[in-house]
Amino acid sequence: MGNRKRVSSPGSKRTPEDRAKWAKERQALVGTLITQAGTFEGAMVLEHIRGSQYTVQLSSGDEVYASHKKSKDGSRNKIFSHQGWNIWESR
């Protein structure tokens, strides 16, 4: 019972190349300015923690934990991050 294998659906294999590419994409967000309207407007991405988790400094100077959902269109800017940010919530 404790030795269950994780079953993945066909076509969902994550290759080492995929993982490396995604890690680079996540790291590339560090140092970008967030232009998303609302809480994150003018915030700076300080650190990638793990997965979609980041430390972000808001324009007020407060540091918060945030999560980022990648854009489905694959667009990326080296200076600005435009969307996908949420305050991290423990679940």
What does this protein look like?
The protein has one helix at residues 16-28; strands at 33-34, 43-50, 53-57, 63-68, 80-81, 85-87. It is an alpha+beta fold and 91 residues long. It has a 6-stranded mixed β-sheet with strand order 5-1-2-3-4-6, with no helix packed on it. A hairpin with a 5-residue loop joins strand 3 and strand 4. The chain is elongated. The model has no long low-confidence stretch (mean pLDDT 84).
Element layout with pairings:
Elements: H1 16-28, E1 33-34, E2 43-50, E3 53-57, E4 63-68, E5 80-81, E6 85-87
Parallel strand pairs: 1-5
Antiparallel strand pairs: 1-2, 2-3, 3-4, 4-6
**Class of secondary structure makeup:** alpha+beta
Strand order of the largest sheet: 5-1-2-3-4-6
What letter string, H or E per element, gives the SSE order?
HEEEEEE
Head-to-tail CA distance between termini: 26 Å
Work out the number of β strands: 6
Q: Percent of residues in beta strands?
A: 25-35%
Shape: elongated
Please, what is the average pLDDT?
Answer: 84
Summed up, the helix count is: 1
The domain tally reads: 1
pLDDT < 50 runs, ≥5 residues: none
Helix content: 10-25%
Q: From the alpha carbons, calculate the radius of gyration and give it in angstroms.
A: 16 Å
Largest sheet: number of strands, sense, barrel closure:
6 strands, mixed
